[in-house]
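Same chain as my last thread, 339 residues:
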Amino acid sequence: MKKLIFGTLFLALVGIGTTGCKKEVLNKNSSTVTNSQNNSSQIKSLTGFHSDGKMLIFNTSDDFANFIEFDISKHVDEYSANSKDGQPAMRNIKQELVNEVYSRYSDYIVSSSQVDYINDNILNEVLNKDMIVQIGNYLYRLNKEKEKVFVLASTYKDTDYNDLVSENTSNKKIMVYSTEEDVLEMVESGRLSEKVVGCTALYANQKSSDYTPVAVINQYASMTARAIYKKFGFSHKLIAEVTISNTNAYNNVQIYIAAENCSFKQRCGTTLTNFSHPWLTPQLLQIGSIYKKYGYTMYNSVKALENYNLKVRGRAEDYSNPVGSNPYNVVFTDWILFY
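reply #2:
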């Protein structure tokens, strides 16, 4: 069956674990990540970050933006509903950062049995155990539970780091922003925290849609879908997600996400895309999987969205139940209208 390709948002990935990751450390101030898929023409290098033993440091905000935006239209987030089961992601952030030495937030929440308030495949690896990353000349601490970002100029990180960790706002060097905002732009332009200056466009609401009713794929598997918009202050992410329940380790099913007439607009920018596609992100159901989430990152940027309008649903092709001359049976979830 022919799959239609639309612009830069189509991903041709079939199966799990086919991604190869390679990393080379150039020097103590610069790292390069090369991440390739089974389509060898889709190769991109990332540079401009290193670690100091305590945290990850991006040389500039552009370097950070390039890193988090790397998974737009190039990778599928494939992650487990249980973050401790060790299943690989199509973009393996942990592997990309394997040569960087610092205590990661992802490791900390597992070792200390803490609640994962951030729950993001990229930021969980980028942030250190204190939920801090250095971007350019500033340290950013993300407190997702409070929906706040605390900021300290790197000039003071040796003397005031503990105040940043404790969110001691009586220290006038600590600045406070909302996760709603375009924090990097505001910090680097010297705008006052939590003040609407310059662009006065509204921010799109952070929310998650309800899950669709369960769609039965076959006697062993079922699925449900939802859409999510997450705001972290220095990262804003729009995701379509399918959750699979499966009790047969050898179930022959492929999972897709369908999109119809979707659009979204960056704040004080133009509409970034308007597209439809019936077969986004082909995925083989993981062998031995019981409960998995497959997400398609539609947008991930340091810039917040002004609005979004999604119509998405889950699609499954069940090869264990062919229909006539068709080698599989197609099952859909209900459509999600997310705006």
